């Protein structure tokens, strides 16, 4: 016995020594942790200085931007330090006792102090890689794949969910645990759904959410997943939930717009709720309530401290010392229900709104509203009779509709539900109840739903409905008989599903907006794993779009349609070439050559702003010579039409008679004399002249027609090809000027092919111009010259 005790003592002693060393190390670590040093601020720093330092460090050490291996740990320390110093109570506790949790007291037992220290610095069994026992409070929030799709996903259309993704061996998950618990305690009573997904056990669900690492915090609204990307601070998580909600849930109400808001029940077909409070911003509790009942009720918020709401406060006699909720239906002057409480609870608000979520006489606009207003009979004591008015939306029906509303207000009973439909919008329903007969006047039908398949028992009130006192008395008598004898409804029918009268385009726009916001959020925070298919589709579409635009912008005019492979050119008789011509500016066959006319519209793009390296070959003609010259011009330049840098145009000298003289006069002095030397004795007839215009470098080469009938080898026909040939041909040109006037029109361009070859060789004389004369200003330029 003694030997056994002696053997046990060393083990106990070793365990005690181990715990002592562990405590010393923890105390040492606690003494080394200083949020002031981490944020780089003094102990007397203001909240503004602390916030500024935190933003700077959080931006610097954010794991998505900083690739340092220690960035995540440093980011967590910065976030925790800011959480301590931004809260005055926590900051005071740390300054006094070196503790971070305001719930911990200095005068605690040693065991409680050690546990408090453990909670503050997130130390548990996972430090030694022992499986840690899960917190019992978290077990009720655990989500499974089937539960998420059947319960949570549909419920996200009524309330937002805050979901934490964690795992057993996640040390960083333990760091955010205190903030997570505080956030849950704050948001869950407001109506926010809470969920926890274990990455190790629910990989299928984590993959569906797009969460591939722990810890991750996800917001779920309307079935849409949003990731939280900021520092894990309670204020940030609260703002994250608030940002997930739609923007126009609650409308700001003042003296200027409250009447329009309350009178909109006719269009919106919903009651209206007004919340009066002293704070200038809409409380999150009110936004969450509005989100849950947005399909049934419209919500407005009134700031009692705003001077623009004095008339509103006086009219409804609002107590300014406590939040007040007013609910209005068809009467915008008097609320049907009021609630006032200092500590407004979510349960109270839900009960208040759910008891009044229908108008006294709502209009049936979809099947969902019909199911909620007139549910299917389940038990005898839960019978619900629907009194339905079939009417119209024209002005003539308004008195009868108003009388029906007055009757419904005076005969409120739990078993009776009053509603109306417009016959024009709900024709299938009305035909089933009226036996396919169009109602010339409003009709009242009393019905009871028997099955979800649409089977009803009903009875039409004889005599129709005009809103007279006699009609009211007769309808009241019918309802009394119905309550005494449930078999009073003897006709049966199967009703079709109601048409959805809601504006679907608005729903589509809201869905598109939510989708764009989701894409922007994913792009901003690099959720690339889910975004890769969408990004690939977007960039492919953009590449195809811009590629097509660029190809069209830089393609030749004649390349808009595919060309057939052109056979080798064979000499053709002139008659055949002439037969292929056309009287229009564009020959009908694209494989011939395309010639465009220089006009006020095409002049800038075809000359002034011509791309560098491109030349526009322009034929000058008149109305009389247009057909013959265009056919001959097309034949001569046909072999050069495949050149990508050449463009072919023509200029009508009868329309722009001053352009050619203005162009020739704008050349330099010596060149001007050479250009005009042969024109001294000639009349200003430029038909048959061809110009090669380089719009970028501002120069041109000139081809002038010369008589070629006597000597076909006469080089004088190529005047102005080069300076040498020009000097030799000048006497010949002058001596034959009298005969040049008698040149046949189709012979004027006989040597154009040779001139084009020398143009491509670059051996022609280039005449420089300071600027291209405008077609509209050519006359003025010529006069100034």
From TrEMBL:
Stretch forming the signal peptide: 1-29
Any one of the GO BP annotations: autophagy
UniProt main location, coarse: endoplasmic reticulum
SMART domains: DnaJ
One GO cellular component term noted in the UniProt record for this chain: endoplasmic reticulum membrane
Segments forming domain J: 34-98
SUPFAM superfamilies for the chain: Chaperone J-domain (SSF46565), Thioredoxin-like (SSF52833)
InterPro entries linked: DnaJ_C16_autophagy_reg, DnaJ_domain, DnaJ_domain_CS, DNAJC16_TRX, J_dom_sf, Thioredoxin-like_sf, Thioredoxin_domain
One Pfam family matching this protein: DnaJ
Compositionally biased region (Basic and acidic residues): 558-571
Protein's cellular compartments: Endoplasmic reticulum membrane
Topological relation to the membrane, as annotated: Single-pass type IV membrane protein
Record has Protein transport as a keyword: no
Transmembrane segments: 534-554
Keyword field contains Calcium: no
Key words of the record: Autophagy, Glycoprotein, Membrane, Signal, Transmembrane, Transmembrane helix
Region (Disordered): 557-589, 714-742
Function: Plays an important role in regulating the size of autophagosomes during the formation process.
Protein name: DnaJ homolog subfamily C member 16
Lineage, uppermost ranks: Eukaryota, Metazoa, Chordata, Craniata, Vertebrata
């Amino acid at each position: 016995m003694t030997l056994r005790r002696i053997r046990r003592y060393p083990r106990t002693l070793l365990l005690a020594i181990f715990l002592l060393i562990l405590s010393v190390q923890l105390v040492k670590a606690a003494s080394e942790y200083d949020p002031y040093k981490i944020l780089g601020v003094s102990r007397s720093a203001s909240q503004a200085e602390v916030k500024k330092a935190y933003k700077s460090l959080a931006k610097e050490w954010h794991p998505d931007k900083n690739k340092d291996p220690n960035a995540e740990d440093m980011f967590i320390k910065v976030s925790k330090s800011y959480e301590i110093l931004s809260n005055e109570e926590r900051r005071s506790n740390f300054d006094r006792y070196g503790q971070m949790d305001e719930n911990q007291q200095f005068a605690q037992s040693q065991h409680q102090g050690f546990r408090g220290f453990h909670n503050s610095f997130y130390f548990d069994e996972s430090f030694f890689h022992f499986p840690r026992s899960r917190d019992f409070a978290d077990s009720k929030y655990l989500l499974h794949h089937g539960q998420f799709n059947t319960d949570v996903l549909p419920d996200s259309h009524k309330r937002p969910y805050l979901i934490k993704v964690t795992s057993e061996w996640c040390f960083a998950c333990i760091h955010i645990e205190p903030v997570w618990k505080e956030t849950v305690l704050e948001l869950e009573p407001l109506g926010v759904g809470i969920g926890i997904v274990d990455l190790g056990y629910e990989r299928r669900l984590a993959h569906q959410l797009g969460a591939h690492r722990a810890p991750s915090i996800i917001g779920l609204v309307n079935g849409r997943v949003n990731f939280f990307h900021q520092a894990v601070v309670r204020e940030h998580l609260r703002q994250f939930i608030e940002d997930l909600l739609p923007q126009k849930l609650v409308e700001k109400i003042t003296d200027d717009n409250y009447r329009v808001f309350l009178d909109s029940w006719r269009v919106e077909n919903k009651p209206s709720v007004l919340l009066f409070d002293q704070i200038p911003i809409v409380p999150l509790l009110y936004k969450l309530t509005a989100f849950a009942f947005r399909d049934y009720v419209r919500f407005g918020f009134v700031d009692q401290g705003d001077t623009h709401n004095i008339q509103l406060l006086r009219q409804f006699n609002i107590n300014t010392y406590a939040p007040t909720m007013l609910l209005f239906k068809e009467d915008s002057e008097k609320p049907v229900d009021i609630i006032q409480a200092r500590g407004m609870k979510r349960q109270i608000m839900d009960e208040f709104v759910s008891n009044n979520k229908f108008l006294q006489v709502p209009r049936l606009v979809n099947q969902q509203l019909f199911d909620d207003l007139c549910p299917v009979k389940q038990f005898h004591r839960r019978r619900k009779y629907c009194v339905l008015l079939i009417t119209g939306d024209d002005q003539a029906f308004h008195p009868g509709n108003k009388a029906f509303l007055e009757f419904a207000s005076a005969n409120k009973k739990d078993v009776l539900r009053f509603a109306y439909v417009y016959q024009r919008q709900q024709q299938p329903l009305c035909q089933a109840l009226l036996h396919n007969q169009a109602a010339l006047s409003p009709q009242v039908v009393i019905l009871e739903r028997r099955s979800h398949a649409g089977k009803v028992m009903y009875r039409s009130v004889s005599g129709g409905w005009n809103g007279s006192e006699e009609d009211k008395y007769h309808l009241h008598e019918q309802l009394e008989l119905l309550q005494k004898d449930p078999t009073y409804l003897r006709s049966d029918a199967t009703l079709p599903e109601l048409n959805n009268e809601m504006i679907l385009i608005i729903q589509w726009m809201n869905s598109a907006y939510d989708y764009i916001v989701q894409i922007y959020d994913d792009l901003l925070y690099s959720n690339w794993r889910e975004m890769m298919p969408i990004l690939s589709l977007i960039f492919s579409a953009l590449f195809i779009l811009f590629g097509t635009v660029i190809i069209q912008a830089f393609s030749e005019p004649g390349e808009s349609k595919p060309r057939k492979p052109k056979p080798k050119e064979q000499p053709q008789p002139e008659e055949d070439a002439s037969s292929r011509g056309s009287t229009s500016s564009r020959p009908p066959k694209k494989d011939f050559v395309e010639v465009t006319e220089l006009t006020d519209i095409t002049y800038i793009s075809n000359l002034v702003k011509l791309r560098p390296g491109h030349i526009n070959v322009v034929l000058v003609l008149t109305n009389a010579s247009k057909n013959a010259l265009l056919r001959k011009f097309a034949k001569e330049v046909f072999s050069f039409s495949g050149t990508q840098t050449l463009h072919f145009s023509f200029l009508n000298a009868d329309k722009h008679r001053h352009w050619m003289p203005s162009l020739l006069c704008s050349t330099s002095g010596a060149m001007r004399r050479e250009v005009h030397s042969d024109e001294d004795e000639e009349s200003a007839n430029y038909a048959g002249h061809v110009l090669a215009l380089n719009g970028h470098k501002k120069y041109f080469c000139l081809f002038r027609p010369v008589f070629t009938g006597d000597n076909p080898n006469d080089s004088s026909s190529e005047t102005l090809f080069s300076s040498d040939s020009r000097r030799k041909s000048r006497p010949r040109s002058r001596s034959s000027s009298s005969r040049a006037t008698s040149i046949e029109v189709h012979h004027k361009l006989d040597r154009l092919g040779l001139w084009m070859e020398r143009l491509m060789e670059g051996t022609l004389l280039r005449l420089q111009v300071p600027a291209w004369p405008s077609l509209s200003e050519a006359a003025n330029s010529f006069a100034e010259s």
